[in-house]
Fold each of these.
Amino acid sequence: MIDPELKYCPQCRDEYRPDISQCGVCGTTLLTGGQFMALHENKSEKRAQRKGDLTAADELVNIQGGPLTDMRHLEELLKAERIGTMLVGDERNCGKGCCPSNFFLQVRREDAADAFAVIQAEHQRMTALADHGADLVDGVFNADAGQATCPACGFSFQTSTNTCPDCGLCFG
């Protein structure tokens, strides 16, 4: 139940007092209860307008490729959003189930942007990338510098070792 007097995080869905303006978990600007309800009504309307199951006349595009188990997981997420999907084996698939193969997840061209957004949100959720800054991603390990900052965890350490003592990332 959404209380119009309270505030809500559109990312975490956490509930806050009216005087709070930012989510304590992810830092996102909070929405009022009314704004939060309108956001979810919008998403529900958009979901209801989607065509759902694919037809032979639909123009399909590949949006993701990978092992069957990964693609099945993404397929279920998209089906929950009423985005029609199809899994297609690559040309290396012998059809007997014995050949290692990648599969491609296909959706209607008009659903591709929404499908990609769902997959991207799932990727961020599974990897916790939304919780980490990317400001150190371009860092380079220089053994002659004496001091280094790990681009994975941000820990500062002496370059006498080529492994981050905090997270174990090896620079060797």
Amino acid sequence: MVPVSGRLPEDLYQWLSALPLEGATTFSDKMREAIATLKRLHDGGADYVGALTMHRDLSRSARDQLAALELQSGEHSEVVAAVLEHAPAFGAALQSAHVATLDDARLLEAQLVRRALQLAETLLRQMLTTEAAAYDPQVVRRHAGRLIELARAIPPLNQPQGD
């Protein structure tokens, strides 16, 4: 370890002192964890897996709160679970993208569209029953009307479109 000395504005000191960080009890522990987090943010964009880990870490608080709520209430939302799975993947794809050429842009586009359609498919599956596996069983039906309308207007994929 290298000892470091520095000055912080009072508001940042108070904020960091009060911030609960896993495994960090002293102010020095919190400073080390804060700097390690900043390094992960910086390094996380270098590759998809690192960026995905970072984006999952950013949503950890919501995940933990939802887990506690589910434990207390006995309810679970497949809808929220799907979004928590896909949202970090979107962020990671965008953060780790290296778009120097049109081919790079096409690869990123394909990755984003594939992920978006996987999420849409997951949400549409929730409409196969009268009530979605969600905290609000009607949430998907209530918000999917226009998507369903658009999907019905798409010609079958195996038929040639008008010339």
Amino acid sequence: MARAKGGFKLKNRHKTWMKLAKGFCGRRSKIFKTAKLAVIHALTYAYVGRKKQKRNMRALWNIRIGAAAKLNGTSYSRLIYGLKKSNIELDRKVLAAIAAEDSKTFSSLVKLSQVATN
């Protein structure tokens, strides 16, 4: 019986990995073995990056809220504490957007939080 070396199935499998390696530099996009390793690493980094992006965005929102709170004469922690006490349920993403785009609304939120804490 003749030895089967893969044929079209092997070629198709290689093609899928090589498609994913499209755009990589040099050997990483031309040679199957290196391309597959590069793609595996890239997919791993992409997965980790998607998790890190969420952390980075929350940190950015906190910084924006804190800076706007300082401009209104309070600290970030006091603002968040006051908002929770006054049952204002705005998440940090929305608060950061308000702080960046609408300073009057944000200052009114700060006043509400100060009233709740006093």
